[in-house]
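Input (structure):
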């Protein structure tokens, strides 16, 4: 049985969060045990690192080291044990976000990220990544209607253009894992695309 690890990605304002709970319910209705979690975060230590990442000024290497430190703790304490029990793990962002935000957005060295990824993950990768893609200008309008911006959300459109390109590069490198969701569609159409693509893959 395909129990697996599903991640949700996209620039801030793409609307991924509202679909995570819906997918959890859809999978539970099919008899699966489901765990919802997020990055940076998911453990007490990683949630403290998240607070620093979102609000404390730092350079791109420090950002990268902190996201991978948080990820290491999260994998060891939560994700790997859940997968070992046969639980399906839904994670709001994972390493593709590091390649997109620190690599693309901040312009940090991708080779260093590849090295950190291999040290921290020991080969672990999501089985499926739902990438909510939409133009940065539209995402900015959606964010403007939401709450106060953190260090990433307050970046300008050129930053989010580079983040989007970072996601596109990761998707091109792992086409079997990525499902690109057209996040410009109305919410019901987005959900229909998610359910249909997972069904086609035997979920
Ligand atoms: P998110 O969970 O989308 O925040 P929100 O609570 O606003 O929905 O993500 C938090 C921010 O962290 C987001 O702007 C992207 C950033 N981030 C990175 O820069 N690198 C990473 O590796 C991860 C996982 C997130």
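Output (sequence):
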């Amino acid at each position: 049985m395909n129990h697996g690890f599903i991640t949700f990605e996209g620039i801030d304002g793409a609307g991924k969060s509202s679909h995570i709970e819906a997918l959890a319910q859809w999978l539970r209705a099919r008899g699966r045990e489901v765990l919802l979690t997020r990055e940076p975060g998911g453990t007490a230590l990683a949630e403290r690192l998240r607070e620093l990442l979102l609000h404390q000024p730092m350079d791109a290497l420090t950002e990268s080291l902190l996201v991978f430190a948080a990820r290491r703790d999260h994998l060891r304490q939560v994700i790997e044990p859940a997968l070992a029990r046969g639980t399906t793990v839904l994670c709001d962002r994972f390493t593709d976000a590091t390649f997109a935000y620190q690599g693309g957005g901040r312009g940090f060295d991708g080779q260093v990220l590849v090295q950190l990824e291999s040290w921290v993950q020991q080969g672990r990768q999501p089985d499926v990544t739902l990438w909510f893609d939409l133009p940065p200008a539209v995402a900015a309008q959606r964010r403007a209607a939401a709450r106060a911006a953190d260090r990433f959300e307050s970046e300008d459109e050129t930053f989010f253009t580079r983040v989007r390109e970072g996601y596109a590069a990761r998707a091109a490198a792992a086409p079997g894992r990525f499902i690109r969701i057209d996040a410009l569609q109305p919410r019901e159409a987005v959900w229909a695309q998610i359910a249909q693509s997972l069904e086609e893959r035997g979920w």
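Notes: The longest helix spans residues 60-84. The mean pLDDT is 96.
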